[in-house]
Amino acid sequence: MASTELRKIPRVDELLSLPALADLPHPLAKMVINRVLDQARKQGKIDPDQIRARIGELAEEYRYPYVRRAVNGLGVVLHTGLGRAPLYHAAEMIHQAMTGFSALQIDFDTGRRGDRYQRIDDLLRTITGCESSVIVNNNAAATMLILNTFGQGKEIIVSRGQLVEIGGAFRIPDVMKRSGARLVEVGTTNRTHLRDYEEAITDQTAAIMRVHQSNYRIIGFTKDVPLEELVSLAHRHNLLMIDDLGSGAFFDLRQYGLPYEPFVQESIKLGADLICFSGDKLLCGPQCGIILGKKALIDRIKKNPLTRALRCCKFTFIALEATLRLFLDPEHLIRTHPVLKLLTLDPKRIRRRAKLFLGKVRKLFPGLKVDLVETRSEIGGGSLAGHDLLSYAVAITPPINPDRFARRMRKQPVPVMGRVEGDRYLLDFRTILPKEERFIIEALRRVLA
C-alpha cells in the first residue's frame, strides 16, 4: 500500500475516543479497532469515514453475546447455523442446575464419585430397549469411536452409495481413515447387492456398516440391502453390524403423516450390534452422539481412551435428560416435542398466524409493502432429504436493497433470520416460535427508523 494511503489511517488513540466504543472494555475496543484497520489495509484504499462507521458497526455486535436467542424465519426446522433443535423444553432443568454447583457425577448413596452416564443410560434403555449406551460430543465422534474400538487395523465394509459427506466437508472415508480402520467399498453408487458385501468379506473384516444417507437421496434405478439381511450376513460370519442412523428418530414418522425415516427401535429389533446417531436432530436434544448396543460392546467403547477425549459437558447431560424424559409420555409427544410440533403444524394454522402478523405490520408500518405468500419449509439437519412442507410466509418488500435489509435484521439484539427471494424478504411462520413476533416488530422499528 502506498504511503499516501497509509497516512490516511486515523490514529488508534483518536479512534478509542469514538462514542461507539465508550461502553466497551478497553481490550475489546482495541481488538475492534485493530480488526477494522487490518481489513482496511488489505483492501488497499483507506476511507477514514468508512473506518469509523465499520468500527461502530462492529462495536455494536460485540455488545451482545455471539450465541444468543434468534428468530428463525428461514423455514428450516433443523438449521445447523441456528443450533438445530430448539431446547426450550430443557430450559428449566438447565437453569435449575446452573444456578449453583451441579450433581454431575455423584453416587448419592455413598457420596463418592458416581457414573455420569447412568441416568442417561437408564432412560435410553427404557425408551429404546437397548442393552447399554454411551454418549459423546457428536455423531461424527460416535462413528469414529466405534470404528477405532472395533476396526483399528481391520476392514469395514460400506456401500459406495453410503459414502456420505456431512456438513463442513467431513467425509465417511476420512473419518474411517482417522479411526485406523480400512474402508472396503462395495457395490456402485446406485445399486448394492447382498452378494457385494459377502464377496468382500475376508479374514481381516471386522464389521459391516450401514450409513444413513442423511442429506441426499438416490432415486431411480437403485438397490439397497435391507438391514435385516445385512445383520444376518454379518452374524453368519461372526462380524459386527454397525448402523449409523444419522438423524436418529425415536419413532416412526409415518404415524405423523411424514415420510419413512429409519428409526432407532427398528434397528435394535432387527439385530444391529451397535447403533449411533445425533442427539440434536429429530431427537430434539443437545449436540451429542449417542451410541447404543450390546452391553459387552459398549463396555469396550467406554474403556477406549478416546471416550474421555470425546466426553460431553454437563450442559449436554442436563439437556439430553430433559429431552429423553419427553419420550416417557408418548401420547403427548406431539404437544411436548418441539421438533415434532413444528413438523406437524397444520398449514391452515400457520396461515392464520402469519395473516394476523401481516395486519399488525401494516398498521404499525403503513408505508411498508407486505404480503402473505405460500411457501415451502425444509426439515434440514440431514433429515428427510428431498421432503418439504407447505407453509406460509410474510413477504416484505423493503425500501432498501433486500440483501442489505436482511443483513440489518440479522444484526439486531435478537437476530431475525429471513430469506431473500427476488426483491422480497420472507419470514416463514412455520419456524417462528410463539410470541416471537415482538422481536420481529422491534427489529423492524430499528431497521426502518
Task: Give a written overview of the molecule.
With 449 residues, the chain is of the alpha/beta class. The chain is built from 19 helices and 16 strands. It folds into 3 domains: 3-61; 71-84 and 345-448, Aspartate Aminotransferase, domain 1 (Alpha-Beta Complex), CATH 3.90.1150.180; 103-331, Aspartate Aminotransferase, domain 2 (3-Layer(aba) Sandwich). 40% of the residues lie in helices and 18% in strands. The chain has a 7-stranded mixed sheet with strand order 3-11-10-9-8-4-7, sandwiched between helices. Strands 2-12-13-16-15 form a 5-stranded mixed sheet. A hairpin with a 7-residue loop joins strand 12 (369-380) and strand 13 (388-397). The radius of gyration is 26 Å and the shape is globular. It starts with a helix and ends with a helix. The model has no long low-confidence stretch (mean pLDDT 93). It holds the Pfam family Se-cys_synth_N. Its EC number is 2.9.1.1. It comes from candidate division WOR-3 bacterium. Converts seryl-tRNA(Sec) to selenocysteinyl-tRNA(Sec) required for selenoprotein biosynthesis.
The side-by-side strand order for the widest beta sheet comes to: 3-11-10-9-8-4-7
Query: Quick one: overall form?
Result: globular
CATH level-four homologous superfamily name of the largest domain: Type I PLP-dependent aspartate aminotransferase-like (Major domain)
For the termini, the CA-CA separation is 38 Å
Reported for the largest beta sheet, the result is:
7 strands, mixed
Family: Belongs to the SelA family.
Modified residues (N6-(pyridoxal phosphate)lysine): 281
Protein name: L-seryl-tRNA(Sec) selenium transferase
Catalytic activity: L-seryl-tRNA(Sec) + selenophosphate + H(+) = L-selenocysteinyl-tRNA(Sec) + phosphate
